Amino acid sequence: MKILGIDPGTASTGYGIITVPDDIMGKEFDYNIELIDYGFVQTPKDTLMEKRLVQLYSEMNSVIEKHKPDAIVIEMLFFGANTRTAISVGQARGVIMLCAGFHSVSITEYSGLTVKLMVAGAGRSDKKQVHEGVRNFLAKMKGEKAAELSRPMAGTKRKKSWDDNAVDAVAIAICHVLKLAAK
């Protein structure tokens, strides 16, 4: 089974694609998974929103066409203090859901708290703890892409690097695998 994890946003949308055995449900998790690809879609802030959404659609559509995932996993929308950001993320999620619908790929959603709990061990984990959790999983995964992404986290709290979005997307995909294995 090929799983596409997505960390949605209009400025930057991270994605990570992993494969797992088709019979993972109900089995003990044995890390027999492989990181296939990861990356991000970045749109210029000085571009009109409708153009940014078209770019996001086009690039995510290309990712889906290239990798042909069996499932898409996306982070649920969290309404924090910044409603403007929440609306923007909601628009990006809608575009991603539209892509999934056109390709007839099912979507599963997880809250950020669930992803952090499953990958880093605590629902209130910070970015570095989530990244460390992903690195621990990647150390047990197959493939050269896993080695690439397992390097230490770049960026700080004030300045995110694109790795943060890709790592978050891989964390969402790993969360889904852990949830499937637990069923």
UniProtKB/TrEMBL annotation:
Function recorded in the entry: The RuvA-RuvB-RuvC complex processes Holliday junction (HJ) DNA during genetic recombination and DNA repair. Endonuclease that resolves HJ intermediates. Cleaves cruciform DNA by making single-stranded nicks across the HJ at symmetrical positions within the homologous arms, yielding a 5'-phosphate and a 3'-hydroxyl group; requires a central core of homology in the junction. The consensus cleavage sequence is 5'-(A/T)TT(C/G)-3'. Cleavage occurs on the 3'-side of the TT dinucleotide at the point of strand exchange.
Cofactor binding, note field: Binds 2 Mg(2+) ion per subunit.
Keyword list, A-Z: Cytoplasm, DNA damage, DNA recombination, DNA repair, DNA-binding, Endonuclease, Hydrolase, Magnesium, Metal-binding, Nuclease
UniProt-recorded name of the protein: Crossover junction endodeoxyribonuclease RuvC
Protein source organism: Candidatus Daviesbacteria bacterium GW2011_GWB1_36_5
PANTHER family membership: CROSSOVER JUNCTION ENDODEOXYRIBONUCLEASE RUVC
The encoding gene: ruvC
Binding partners and assembly: Homodimer which binds Holliday junction (HJ) DNA. The HJ becomes 2-fold symmetrical on binding to RuvC with unstacked arms; it has a different conformation from HJ DNA in complex with RuvA. In the full resolvosome a probable DNA-RuvA(4)-RuvB(12)-RuvC(2) complex forms which resolves the HJ.
Cofactor: Mg(2+)
Family from the record: Belongs to the RuvC family.
GO cellular component: cytoplasm; Holliday junction resolvase complex
